[in-house]
Amino acid sequence: SSGINFGKYDNIPVKVTGENVPAPIKAFSEANLRGIISENVTKSGYKVPTPIQKVSIPIISAGRDMMACAQTGSGKTAAFLLPILSYILEENIGMEIGKPLAVIMSPTRELAIQIYNEARKFSFTSYLKIAIVYGGTSVKHQNDSITKGCHVLIATPGRLLDFVNRTFITFTNTRFVVLDEADRMLDMGFADSMRQMMTHITMRPEHQTLMFSATFPEEIQRMAGEFLKDYVFVTIGVVGG
Ligand code: ADP
Ligand code: MG
Q1: 12 within ligand 1 shell (Cβ under 6 A)
Q2: Which of 183, 198, 235, 240 is deepest in the core (most CB within 10 A)?
Q3: Please, how many CA atoms are within 13 Å of residue 72, restricted to the half-sphere of its CB?
Q4: Which of 3, 25, 42 is nearest to 121 (CA)?
C-alpha cells in the first residue's frame, strides 16, 4: 500500500536552482524508463509521479549531481531508483564481482531494507542484481551476496566501509552514489563515514552523486559543496535547517 496523500501536495512549493536544469516530467510515461522498469512502476500501483519524482527523475537521467530536500514520505526512493535502474539496463553495463555500479548509503538497517525491497520490486524480472549489507549480522553471509556480484548495492555506512577496507568492495565501476537521509546519517554520527566513502569514490572521476535530506542544516550544505559538482538544488515544501 502506498502512503502517499497526493492531495496534500497540490500547492506545495517546489524550488529548483542550478544551471540548465531539465524540465520536470508530468507523467511516468515522459520519464524514458526502460520497458521492464515502467511495467514494474505500473504493477506497483504508481499512477502519477510525486513532486520530487517529477523534478528529480529528469535531472538524474541527464547525468546531473543533485541535492534534494524533501520531507519523509514524499517518494524519494523511486525518485533515485527509477532513473538509476533504468540507466544500468539501458547501457547494459557489464557487472564485475565486488564492483557495484550504484551504491546507496542509508542510515539504518530498516531504511536500507526498504530501499532494497523497492529496488527488487522495480527491477523484477530483469537481470539486475541488488545486494544489501548492514551491521549487526555476519559479515560472511553478506559477503556471499557481494561475491556473487551485484549491480546495485544498498548499505549502512559502518558495514560499507568495513567491506571497502577489507577490499571486498571497490568503487572502480561505480557510476552512481546516493546518500539517502543525509541529515539522519549526520545525527547518527556518520559524518566521517560519509566523507571516507566519498574520498574512495572521488578517486574515480566519472560518477554522479545524489544527496537526499529531509532538512538542510549547515553541515549538509557544506557536504553538498564538497561532494557535488555543478549540482542542481531541489527543495520540495518548507524545509527546516
Ligand atoms: P521517502 O523516501 O521520501 O520518505 P518513500 O520513497 O519511502 O518516501 O515513499 C513513501 C511511500 O509512498 C512508499 O510506500 C512508496 O511506495 C509510496 N510511493 C512513492 N511514490 C509513489 C507514487 N508515485 N505513487 C504512489 N505511491 C508512491
Ligand atoms: Mg526515504
Answers
A1: no
A2: 183
A3: 5
A4: 42
